[in-house]
Amino acid sequence: MRRKLLVGAAGAGSLAALRPLPILAAEVGSSVALGFAEIPAGALAEQHLYALPGKVPLIKKTYRPPNFETPIEYFRTP
Questions:
Q1: Whole-model pTM over 0.70
Q2: pLDDT digits (tens, 9 = 90+) for 59-74
Q3: Are 46 and 40 in contact (CB under 8 A)?
């Protein structure tokens, strides 16, 4: 019984600690304000451009396994 109480208290504490994060993320600036209306809000804050040897820089989404995404500028050019 005591273990369930501790797990529940830890879960409630972690949720309370995560509460201010959306407030901090809103201060960075929305993607609409930056001129990227088609990108969801918060997506630009997590972009990291990375270039493999001999390649153009791509947005690195994950490190293991490597997952890359094409920047939006490539879709805007005819």
A1: no
A2: 888 888 888 888 878 8
A3: no
